[in-house]
Design goal:
alpha+beta, 4 helices, 2 domains, five-stranded antiparallel β-sheet, Quinone Oxidoreductase, Chain A, domain 1
């Protein structure tokens, strides 16, 4: 398994952007200096889910709060006084530097200011995915949105782009 090497975090929020410091053997889609965002639900690009248009729940890199080590060798990459510090959700972004699987970062435009970019997280993705892949509203349809949390807030603009009328 290829892993992305050190990933420098630039601010202290959960889903921060960073700059790739180094890459491990076999990593071909990332290079030192690339700007990236970590993602909890990574993509190996090889399993049935990654190749499916219906799912993004990668068999290898899906969210697994019980997996606290690197997939490639089952070891933690951090320690204090000889005691391991385990990874959190495959990204460990609560540190200045981290080590992640290459499938758990998304390369972004290097011109994007790292103090302004972030992952919109699962709320937006859930709302977007539920609308596009499940509800599939037709152009001109009227849609009710119940709740305006992260999921609900993703809907009005998306529905407008799809040509649907919105009823909130």
């Amino acid at each position: 398994m290829a892993i992305c090497g050190l990933f420098r975090s630039l601010w202290t929020i959960e889903q921060r952007g960073g700059i790739v410091e180094s890459v491990g053997e076999g990593v071909i889609d990332l290079a030192p200096g690339d700007h990236v965002l970590p993602v909890f639900t990574g993509e190996c690009k090889e399993c049935a889910h990654c190749k499916s248009e219906e799912s993004n729940m990668c068999e290898l890199l899906r969210i697994n709060p019980d997996r606290k080590v690197m997939i490639s060798d089952g070891q933690a990459r951090f320690s204090v006084n000889g005691q391991p510090i385990y990874h959190f959700l495959g990204t460990s972004t609560f540190s200045e530097f981290t080590v992640v699987h290459s499938g758990c970062v998304a390369k972004i435009n290097p011109q994007a200011p790292l103090d302004k970019v972030c992952v919109l997280s699962c709320g937006f993705c859930t709302g977007f995915g539920a609308t596009v892949n499940v509800a599939k509203p037709k152009k001109g349809s009227t849609v009710a949105i119940f709740g305006l949390g992260a999921v609900g807030l993703s809907e009005p603009r998306l529905l407008e782009l799809l040509g649907s009328l919105v009823l909130i």
